[in-house]
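Please, structure for the following, as C-alpha cells.
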Amino acid sequence: MKNIIYFSVILLFCTTNQIFSQQKEEMVIRQDFVPLLDSLIVPPADCREAKNLVVQDTTNNEYSLISTLDNQDKRIQALTDLINNYINGNKMNRAQDSYSPTGNVPDQRGNIPHGDFRRNNGFDSGPEFKDIREDMQDANVSMDRMVVIKEKFKNELTELQSSVNERLHKTLKTDYPSHVDIINDFMKSASGLYKQYHFEFRNNMKQIDDIIKRYDYGSKFRSYPLSTAILKFQLTEADDIRFLLNITKEFAFLGAKFYDEAR
C-alpha cells in the first residue's frame, strides 16, 4: 500500500507543478523479465542432479558452477548493475536540471514556466493520464505481492531447513547414505515449493512486464519520476529473479557436497 501512495504522490507532484525534464539520454532497459525467469535452471531435485550443476576442483576440493548456470548469474548481475546505473543517472540529471534556467523547471527566481505535463509526455487527454496513474498503481500492487511471495518462500525454506538439521543431528557423523537420503528429501520438497512460487512470481511479473511495454519500457515518459518508476519496477523483477537463481546455486553446492561424501 505504501508503494501505491508513493507513486500516486509522484504523479500528483508532476501534474500540479507542471515540471518537465528533458532527458539527456535514453536510460531505458528493453528487457522482458518473464522470459528471463522462465530460462532459469530450476533447483536440483536430489544430490545426483546437484552434482551435475557443478564442477569440482579436486586439488582443493572446491566447487564452481557449470558454465550455463554461471552465465545466468553473470547476466542477471550485469542487468541489475545497469538498472541501478540508470536510476542513479536519472537522479543526477534531475538534480542538474533543477538548477537549469531553461526548460520546464524552476528558474533562478524559483518561478516555474508554463507547461503541460501530460502533453510533454505524449498523453494529451485527461483519461489517458488517468490510465497512467492506474497502471502505476497496478504495477505497485504486483510488486507488493511479490514481496509477500518472497517472504513466504523464505519462511517455508527456513522451516524445511530446520527439520533437515534436526534429522541430520540424529544420525551418526559417518552415516553418509542416511545423510544423502535426508538431503534428497529436503531438495525434493524445496523443488516442489520452487515450482509453486515460480508460478506466482511469473503471474505478477507478467503483469508488470505488460505495463512496462505499454509505455515502451519508459521511453514514452520524459519526466524523471516516471521513467525512474519504470526502472524500479524492473529492478524489483531482477532482484526476485536473482533470489530464485541463488536458491538453485545453493542447492547445487549443498547436494554435490553430500553426494561426494557418500561415494
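The chain has a mean pLDDT of 84. Residues 126-169 form the longest helix (44 residues).
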